[in-house]
Protein backbone atom coordinates (compact mmCIF):
# COMPACT_ATOMS: atom_id res chain seq x y z
CA UNK A 1 0.00 0.00 0.00
CA UNK A 2 2.74 2.45 0.92
CA UNK A 3 4.63 1.62 -2.31
CA UNK A 4 1.48 2.18 -4.34
CA UNK A 5 0.99 5.49 -2.56
CA UNK A 6 4.43 6.75 -3.52
CA UNK A 7 4.17 5.40 -7.04
CA UNK A 8 1.00 7.24 -8.00
CA UNK A 9 1.45 10.33 -5.83
CA UNK A 10 -1.86 10.93 -4.10
CA UNK A 11 -0.72 13.94 -2.08
CA UNK A 12 -2.57 16.49 -4.21
CA UNK A 13 -5.86 14.71 -3.58
CA UNK A 14 -5.73 13.60 0.02
CA UNK A 15 -2.54 15.01 1.52
CA UNK A 16 -2.37 12.15 4.01
CA UNK A 17 -0.14 9.07 4.17
CA UNK A 18 -1.88 6.88 6.73
CA UNK A 19 -2.09 3.38 5.24
CA UNK A 20 -4.84 2.40 7.68
CA UNK A 21 -7.00 5.29 6.50
CA UNK A 22 -6.45 4.25 2.88
CA UNK A 23 -7.62 0.74 3.77
CA UNK A 24 -10.77 2.24 5.26
CA UNK A 25 -11.35 4.14 2.02
CA UNK A 26 -11.26 0.91 0.04
CA UNK A 27 -14.00 -0.45 2.33
CA UNK A 28 -16.48 2.28 1.34
CA UNK A 29 -19.25 0.24 -0.31
CA UNK A 30 -21.46 3.00 -1.69
CA UNK A 31 -22.95 1.98 -5.03
CA UNK A 32 -23.64 4.84 -7.42
CA UNK A 33 -26.25 2.73 -9.25
CA UNK A 34 -28.28 1.93 -6.12
CA UNK A 35 -27.90 5.51 -4.88
CA UNK A 36 -29.25 6.99 -8.12
CA UNK A 37 -32.07 4.45 -8.32
CA UNK A 38 -33.22 5.13 -4.75
CA UNK A 39 -32.72 8.91 -4.61
CA UNK A 40 -33.17 10.45 -8.04
CA UNK A 41 -36.97 10.48 -8.10
CA UNK A 42 -37.75 10.23 -4.39
CA UNK A 43 -39.08 13.83 -4.38
CA UNK A 44 -41.23 13.26 -7.43
CA UNK A 45 -40.66 11.78 -10.84
CA UNK A 46 -40.25 14.05 -13.86
CA UNK A 47 -39.13 13.48 -17.43
CA UNK A 48 -35.40 14.21 -17.91
CA UNK A 49 -36.09 15.30 -21.50
CA UNK A 50 -38.99 17.77 -21.20
CA UNK A 51 -39.46 18.14 -17.44
CA UNK A 52 -43.09 16.95 -17.44
CA UNK A 53 -44.19 15.45 -14.11
CA UNK A 54 -46.93 13.30 -15.67
CA UNK A 55 -45.12 9.98 -16.07
CA UNK A 56 -46.08 6.33 -15.64
CA UNK A 57 -44.21 3.08 -15.15
CA UNK A 58 -43.51 1.39 -18.46
CA UNK A 59 -42.19 -2.08 -17.72
CA UNK A 60 -38.68 -3.38 -17.13
CA UNK A 61 -35.59 -3.41 -19.31
CA UNK A 62 -32.86 -5.82 -18.16
CA UNK A 63 -34.32 -5.67 -14.68
CA UNK A 64 -34.37 -1.85 -14.58
CA UNK A 65 -37.63 0.04 -14.17
CA UNK A 66 -38.61 2.12 -17.20
CA UNK A 67 -40.95 5.11 -17.26
CA UNK A 68 -42.86 6.88 -20.03
CA UNK A 69 -43.57 10.59 -20.28
CA UNK A 70 -47.18 11.52 -21.04
CA UNK A 71 -46.10 14.72 -22.81
CA UNK A 72 -43.16 13.85 -25.08
CA UNK A 73 -43.91 10.08 -25.17
CA UNK A 74 -40.25 9.22 -24.53
CA UNK A 75 -39.16 6.51 -22.14
CA UNK A 76 -36.45 6.81 -19.49
CA UNK A 77 -35.02 5.14 -16.41
CA UNK A 78 -33.50 6.21 -13.10
CA UNK A 79 -30.10 6.52 -14.81
CA UNK A 80 -31.12 8.46 -17.94
CA UNK A 81 -28.85 11.47 -18.58
CA UNK A 82 -26.68 10.70 -15.57
CA UNK A 83 -22.89 10.30 -15.93
CA UNK A 84 -23.23 6.50 -15.94
CA UNK A 85 -26.01 6.45 -18.55
CA UNK A 86 -25.14 4.33 -21.62
CA UNK A 87 -21.75 3.30 -20.25
CA UNK A 88 -20.44 -0.23 -20.26
CA UNK A 89 -19.56 -1.85 -16.92
CA UNK A 90 -21.64 0.57 -14.78
CA UNK A 91 -20.89 -1.62 -11.76
CA UNK A 92 -17.24 -0.48 -11.98
CA UNK A 93 -18.00 3.22 -11.67
CA UNK A 94 -17.57 3.15 -7.90
CA UNK A 95 -14.02 1.83 -8.23
CA UNK A 96 -13.33 4.34 -11.01
CA UNK A 97 -14.46 7.30 -8.87
CA UNK A 98 -12.23 6.16 -6.00
CA UNK A 99 -9.29 5.89 -8.42
CA UNK A 100 -10.04 9.41 -9.68
CA UNK A 101 -10.16 10.78 -6.13
CA UNK A 102 -6.92 9.00 -5.29
CA UNK A 103 -5.17 10.57 -8.27
CA UNK A 104 -4.47 7.55 -10.46
CA UNK A 105 -3.71 8.14 -14.11
CA UNK A 106 -5.99 6.60 -16.73
CA UNK A 107 -3.60 3.74 -17.43
CA UNK A 108 -3.05 3.02 -13.73
CA UNK A 109 -6.81 3.06 -13.12
CA UNK A 110 -7.32 0.81 -16.15
CA UNK A 111 -4.95 -1.78 -14.67
CA UNK A 112 -6.74 -1.54 -11.33
CA UNK A 113 -10.31 -1.78 -12.67
CA UNK A 114 -9.61 -4.05 -15.68
CA UNK A 115 -11.20 -1.62 -18.15
CA UNK A 116 -9.64 0.00 -21.21
CA UNK A 117 -8.03 3.37 -20.52
CA UNK A 118 -9.85 4.74 -23.59
CA UNK A 119 -13.16 3.91 -21.90
CA UNK A 120 -11.96 5.56 -18.70
CA UNK A 121 -11.10 8.70 -20.68
CA UNK A 122 -14.77 9.17 -21.59
CA UNK A 123 -15.88 8.21 -18.08
CA UNK A 124 -13.57 10.84 -16.62
CA UNK A 125 -14.93 13.58 -18.84
CA UNK A 126 -18.52 12.66 -18.07
CA UNK A 127 -17.68 12.93 -14.37
CA UNK A 128 -15.86 16.23 -14.96
CA UNK A 129 -18.82 17.62 -16.91
CA UNK A 130 -21.14 16.68 -14.05
CA UNK A 131 -19.00 18.43 -11.43
CA UNK A 132 -18.85 21.52 -13.64
CA UNK A 133 -22.65 21.78 -13.53
CA UNK A 134 -22.80 21.75 -9.73
CA UNK A 135 -24.37 25.01 -8.58
CA UNK A 136 -21.85 27.71 -7.72
CA UNK A 137 -22.28 29.21 -4.24
CA UNK A 138 -21.99 32.97 -3.79
CA UNK A 139 -19.19 34.42 -1.71
CA UNK A 140 -19.94 35.28 1.93
CA UNK A 141 -18.28 38.13 3.79
CA UNK A 142 -14.55 38.70 3.26
CA UNK A 143 -13.07 37.07 0.15
CA UNK A 144 -9.75 36.81 -1.67
CA UNK A 145 -9.30 36.97 -5.44
CA UNK A 146 -6.36 36.43 -7.77
CA UNK A 147 -5.65 35.30 -11.30
CA UNK A 148 -2.95 33.49 -13.22
CA UNK A 149 -2.27 32.53 -16.83
CA UNK A 150 -1.68 29.23 -18.59
CA UNK A 151 -0.52 28.56 -22.11
CA UNK A 152 -3.28 27.63 -24.57
CA UNK A 153 -3.22 23.87 -25.16
CA UNK A 154 -4.50 21.87 -28.14
CA UNK A 155 -3.60 18.55 -26.53
CA UNK A 156 -5.23 15.66 -28.39
CA UNK A 157 -6.21 17.74 -31.43
CA UNK A 158 -5.02 16.68 -34.88
CA UNK A 159 -4.23 18.72 -37.99
CA UNK A 160 -3.54 21.94 -36.10
CA UNK A 161 -2.83 24.95 -38.31
CA UNK A 162 -0.18 27.48 -37.27
CA UNK A 163 0.76 25.39 -34.27
CA UNK A 164 3.59 27.07 -32.38
CA UNK A 165 6.59 25.21 -31.10
CA UNK A 166 5.98 23.96 -27.57
CA UNK A 167 8.55 24.92 -24.95
CA UNK A 168 8.50 22.69 -21.87
CA UNK A 169 9.51 23.80 -18.40
CA UNK A 170 8.66 27.45 -19.05
CA UNK A 171 7.49 29.33 -15.97
CA UNK A 172 4.19 31.18 -15.98
CA UNK A 173 5.94 34.55 -15.73
CA UNK A 174 8.34 34.03 -18.62
CA UNK A 175 5.97 34.48 -21.54
CA UNK A 176 4.17 37.59 -22.73
CA UNK A 177 0.40 37.77 -22.53
CA UNK A 178 -1.19 37.20 -25.92
CA UNK A 179 -4.13 35.40 -27.47
CA UNK A 180 -2.57 32.09 -26.45
CA UNK A 181 -2.60 33.00 -22.74
CA UNK A 182 -5.57 31.55 -20.86
CA UNK A 183 -6.70 33.61 -17.85
CA UNK A 184 -7.83 31.63 -14.79
CA UNK A 185 -9.55 33.48 -11.93
CA UNK A 186 -9.71 32.09 -8.38
CA UNK A 187 -12.02 33.48 -5.69
CA UNK A 188 -12.33 32.10 -2.16
CA UNK A 189 -13.99 33.14 1.08
CA UNK A 190 -13.59 31.85 4.63
CA UNK A 191 -16.65 29.56 4.32
CA UNK A 192 -14.99 27.21 1.79
CA UNK A 193 -16.91 28.74 -1.10
CA UNK A 194 -14.54 28.55 -4.07
CA UNK A 195 -14.73 29.83 -7.62
CA UNK A 196 -12.08 28.70 -10.10
CA UNK A 197 -12.64 29.16 -13.80
CA UNK A 198 -10.84 29.97 -17.04
CA UNK A 199 -12.71 33.01 -18.36
CA UNK A 200 -10.94 33.71 -21.65
CA UNK A 201 -7.68 34.37 -23.44
CA UNK A 202 -5.41 37.39 -23.19
CA UNK A 203 -5.87 40.23 -20.75
CA UNK A 204 -9.13 40.66 -18.90
CA UNK A 205 -11.37 43.62 -19.67
CA UNK A 206 -13.84 45.45 -17.36
CA UNK A 207 -16.84 43.62 -18.85
CA UNK A 208 -15.32 40.25 -17.95
CA UNK A 209 -14.87 41.38 -14.34
CA UNK A 210 -18.40 42.81 -14.06
CA UNK A 211 -19.98 39.65 -15.47
CA UNK A 212 -17.85 37.48 -13.19
CA UNK A 213 -18.54 39.22 -9.89
CA UNK A 214 -22.23 39.80 -10.59
CA UNK A 215 -22.65 36.01 -10.32
CA UNK A 216 -20.44 35.58 -7.25
CA UNK A 217 -20.91 38.45 -4.83
CA UNK A 218 -23.77 38.81 -2.39
CA UNK A 219 -23.40 42.22 -0.81
CA UNK A 220 -19.73 41.59 0.03
CA UNK A 221 -17.89 44.64 1.37
CA UNK A 222 -14.33 43.45 2.06
CA UNK A 223 -11.83 41.86 -0.32
CA UNK A 224 -8.14 41.22 -0.83
CA UNK A 225 -6.21 40.91 -4.09
CA UNK A 226 -2.75 41.35 -5.56
CA UNK A 227 -1.16 44.82 -5.46
CA UNK A 228 -2.07 47.02 -8.44
CA UNK A 229 -4.32 44.33 -9.90
CA UNK A 230 -7.09 45.10 -12.37
CA UNK A 231 -9.61 44.02 -9.72
CA UNK A 232 -8.95 47.27 -7.82
CA UNK A 233 -10.99 49.36 -10.27
CA UNK A 234 -13.99 47.08 -9.89
CA UNK A 235 -13.71 47.17 -6.09
CA UNK A 236 -13.76 50.96 -6.20
CA UNK A 237 -16.85 51.09 -8.41
CA UNK A 238 -18.67 48.47 -6.33
CA UNK A 239 -17.83 50.19 -3.00
CA UNK A 240 -15.86 47.15 -1.83
CA UNK A 241 -13.16 47.94 0.72
CA UNK A 242 -9.85 46.37 -0.27
CA UNK A 243 -7.85 45.09 2.69
CA UNK A 244 -4.54 46.79 3.35
CA UNK A 245 -2.72 43.49 3.66
CA UNK A 246 -1.62 41.97 0.36
CA UNK A 247 -1.78 38.42 -0.87
CA UNK A 248 1.38 36.45 -0.15
CA UNK A 249 2.49 32.83 0.09
CA UNK A 250 0.51 32.37 3.31
CA UNK A 251 -2.78 33.46 1.78
CA UNK A 252 -5.35 30.72 1.27
CA UNK A 253 -6.00 31.70 -2.33
CA UNK A 254 -2.29 31.56 -3.22
CA UNK A 255 -1.95 28.15 -1.58
CA UNK A 256 -5.01 27.01 -3.51
CA UNK A 257 -3.46 28.18 -6.79
CA UNK A 258 -0.17 26.37 -6.01
CA UNK A 259 -1.98 23.13 -5.18
CA UNK A 260 -4.13 23.48 -8.30
CA UNK A 261 -1.10 23.87 -10.59
CA UNK A 262 0.62 20.91 -8.92
CA UNK A 263 -2.53 18.85 -9.36
CA UNK A 264 -2.89 19.78 -13.04
CA UNK A 265 0.76 18.88 -13.65
CA UNK A 266 -0.08 15.24 -12.87
CA UNK A 267 -2.00 15.02 -16.14
CA UNK A 268 1.03 16.08 -18.23
CA UNK A 269 -0.95 18.89 -19.79
CA UNK A 270 -4.68 19.55 -20.02
CA UNK A 271 -6.40 20.63 -23.24
CA UNK A 272 -7.83 24.14 -22.85
CA UNK A 273 -11.27 22.96 -23.98
CA UNK A 274 -11.38 20.64 -20.94
CA UNK A 275 -9.63 23.00 -18.49
CA UNK A 276 -12.77 24.29 -16.75
CA UNK A 277 -13.96 20.73 -16.19
CA UNK A 278 -10.72 19.84 -14.40
CA UNK A 279 -10.84 23.06 -12.38
CA UNK A 280 -14.39 22.24 -11.29
CA UNK A 281 -13.37 18.82 -10.03
CA UNK A 282 -10.41 20.21 -8.11
CA UNK A 283 -12.64 22.92 -6.62
CA UNK A 284 -15.07 20.27 -5.40
CA UNK A 285 -12.26 18.15 -3.95
CA UNK A 286 -10.85 21.10 -2.01
CA UNK A 287 -14.24 22.18 -0.66
CA UNK A 288 -14.98 18.98 1.27
CA UNK A 289 -13.45 17.12 4.19
CA UNK A 290 -11.31 14.13 3.22
CA UNK A 291 -11.23 12.62 6.71
CA UNK A 292 -14.41 10.68 5.87
CA UNK A 293 -14.19 9.14 2.41
CA UNK A 294 -17.63 7.50 2.59
CA UNK A 295 -19.20 10.89 3.37
CA UNK A 296 -17.22 12.52 0.56
CA UNK A 297 -18.34 10.00 -2.07
CA UNK A 298 -21.94 10.27 -0.90
CA UNK A 299 -21.72 14.07 -1.16
CA UNK A 300 -20.34 13.74 -4.68
CA UNK A 301 -23.21 11.44 -5.68
CA UNK A 302 -25.74 13.84 -4.14
CA UNK A 303 -24.21 16.81 -5.96
CA UNK A 304 -24.43 15.22 -9.41
CA UNK A 305 -27.72 13.38 -8.78
CA UNK A 306 -29.92 15.89 -10.63
CA UNK A 307 -27.35 16.98 -13.22
CA UNK A 308 -28.38 16.19 -16.79
CA UNK A 309 -25.44 14.92 -18.84
CA UNK A 310 -26.34 14.58 -22.51
CA UNK A 311 -22.81 14.18 -23.80
CA UNK A 312 -21.82 11.26 -25.99
CA UNK A 313 -18.34 9.96 -26.68
CA UNK A 314 -18.38 11.84 -30.00
CA UNK A 315 -19.45 15.16 -28.47
CA UNK A 316 -16.73 14.86 -25.82
CA UNK A 317 -14.10 14.20 -28.46
CA UNK A 318 -15.05 17.04 -30.83
CA UNK A 319 -16.05 19.67 -28.24
CA UNK A 320 -14.85 23.23 -28.82
CA UNK A 321 -13.15 25.63 -26.45
CA UNK A 322 -15.71 27.16 -24.12
CA UNK A 323 -15.11 29.64 -21.29
CA UNK A 324 -18.30 29.41 -19.23
Helix content: 25-40%
What name does the CATH topology of the largest domain carry?
Answer: Nucleotidyltransferase, domain 5
Pick out the low-confidence regions. 1-27, 167-172
Question: How much of the residues is beta strand, in percent?
Answer: 5-15%
| Structural domain tally | 3
Task: Please summarize the sheet with the most strands.
Answer: 5 strands, mixed
User: Which CATH class of the largest domain is shown?
Assistant: Alpha Beta
The number of distinct β-strands equals 8
Instruction: Report the radius of gyration as a whole number of Å.
Output: 21 Å
Q: How far do the termini sit from each other? A: 40 Å
Number of helices: 12
Oligomer state of the chains in this structure: single chain
User: What string gives the helices and strands in order?
Assistant: HHHEEEHHHEEEHEHEHHHH
Brief summary:
The protein is α/β, with parallel strands linked by helices and 324 residues long. Helices cover 37% and strands 15% of the residues. A hairpin with a 2-residue loop joins strand 1 (55-61) and strand 2.
Amino acid sequence: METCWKQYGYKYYLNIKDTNIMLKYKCCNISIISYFQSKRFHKGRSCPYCGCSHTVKYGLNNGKQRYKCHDCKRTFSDLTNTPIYRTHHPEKWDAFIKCTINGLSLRAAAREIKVSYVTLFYWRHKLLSATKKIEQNRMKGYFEVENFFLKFSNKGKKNIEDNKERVHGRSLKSFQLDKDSVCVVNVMDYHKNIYSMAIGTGRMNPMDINDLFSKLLNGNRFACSKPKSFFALFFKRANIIEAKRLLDGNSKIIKYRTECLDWLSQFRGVATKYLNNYLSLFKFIKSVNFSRMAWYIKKLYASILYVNIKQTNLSIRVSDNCFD
